[in-house]
């Protein structure tokens, strides 16, 4: 198993539960803004998102998943500190009811 150093791909996963008053139009605008960060933050290599489709009903109210890919943990740090991310975070955090963020290094089982 690889050591969890700073190098190597890192996935940044955000689970979101938006406040009830957030309109579908506003939500679409926020998702487009989030996706747009991939063009503004050099260390952000990819972005994917989706909504919960599980039949297990264990989502605890979290409806959206956002996954960003970075080249390293240093890349995540650059992203967090980047002015475009700071501006976006200031826009999205107030409309979130609850959020979970996890960074992990994908590891294959040998």
- CATH fold category name: Alpha-Beta Plaits
Would you identify the regions where 5 or more consecutive residues have pLDDT less than 50? none
The amount of beta strand, in percent, is: 25-35%
- Number of DSSP-assigned strands: 4
Mean pLDDT: 93
Keywords:
110 residues; Alpha-Beta Plaits; 4-stranded antiparallel sheet; globular
Topology diagram in text:
Elements: E1 7-18, H1 24-40, E2 44-51, E3 64-72, H2 73-81, H3 83-92, E4 96-104
Antiparallel strand pairs: 1-3, 1-4, 2-3
Structure, explained:
The chain is α+β, with helices and mostly antiparallel strands and 110 residues long. It has one domain: Alpha-Beta Plaits (2-Layer Sandwich). The chain contains three helices and four strands; from the N terminus they run βαββααβ. The chain has a four-stranded antiparallel sheet with strand order 2-3-1-4. Helix 1 packs antiparallel against helix 3 (83-92). The model has no long low-confidence stretch (mean pLDDT 93).
Q: What's the short version?
A:
The chain is an alpha+beta fold and 110 residues long. It contains 3 helices and 4 strands, in the order βαββααβ.
């Amino acid at each position: 198993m690889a050591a969890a150093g700073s190098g190597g791909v890192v996935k940044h996963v955000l689970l979101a539960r938006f406040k009830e008053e957030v309109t579908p139009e506003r939500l679409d605008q926020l998702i487009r803004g989030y996706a747009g960060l991939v063009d503004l933050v050099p260390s952000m290599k990819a972005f994917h998102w989706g909504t919960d489709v599980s039949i297990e009903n264990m989502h605890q109210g979290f409806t959206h998943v956002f996954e960003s890919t970075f080249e390293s943990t240093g890349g995540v740090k650059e992203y967090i500190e980047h002015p475009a991310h700071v501006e976006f975070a200031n826009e999205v955090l107030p409309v979130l009811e609850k959020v979970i963020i996890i960074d992990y290094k994908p590891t294959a089982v040998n």
